[in-house]
Structure prediction request, 230 residues.
Amino acid sequence: MNRVIVFDVNETLLDLAALDPLFTSAFGNAEVRREWFAQVLLCAMTTSLTGAYADFGVVTAAALERIAARHRVGLSRSQRDRILGGMRTLPPHPEVPRALARLREGGLRLACLTNSAPETAHAQIHNAGLLPYFEDIFSVDDVRRYKPAPEPYRMAAYRLGVDVAQVRLVAAHEWDTTGAIRAGCAAAYVARDGTVPGPIGEIPDITGPDLDNVAEQILERDGTGRVLQA
Prediction:
């Protein structure tokens, strides 16, 4: 089956580790960045589960304030603005442009589906130099439900003009691939830092350590037959 390949953005394509120096400056510990982003995801999912909604910018800011309070750190306005503004200028992981180019050259349609607000999502992809690879960038803001709720995945399929079964979601988050599979998509898991899908969610039929490896498997399964060598 020739599928449309839809990518998560934060951590899957873009490297949040670029924010580590800002967290080191503000908190004295780069690892707080991971704690903050976990709090971001928890807050976002809670809004969906409880029937509420706030855009991702509001959620990221609220999560940062909560983490600062937990660590008893008084963030200055400039520290807060640098961290939150840094989300718009994240670099891609090193292999990402090459992997996306292979998928496009292999005849596949590519799009993004992100929890980020639309303006931020477009700025992220543009600033990372990835805009030419994608035919569209979708935000959960359009359905006011965060992934892994089913509505964002089905919205992406509808906007791309395909059945949901023709979408393959690529993500570095187990909750994202699980949500996609339960919504009717296929999925591919990018196991960055040696992470593995857990035993509770559905296991994607493609898993690889980075996007190069995942892209090669996608070309073999979902491509048009024009598989290119790296």
Q: What stands out?
A: The CA atoms of residues 111 and 136 lie 5 Å apart.
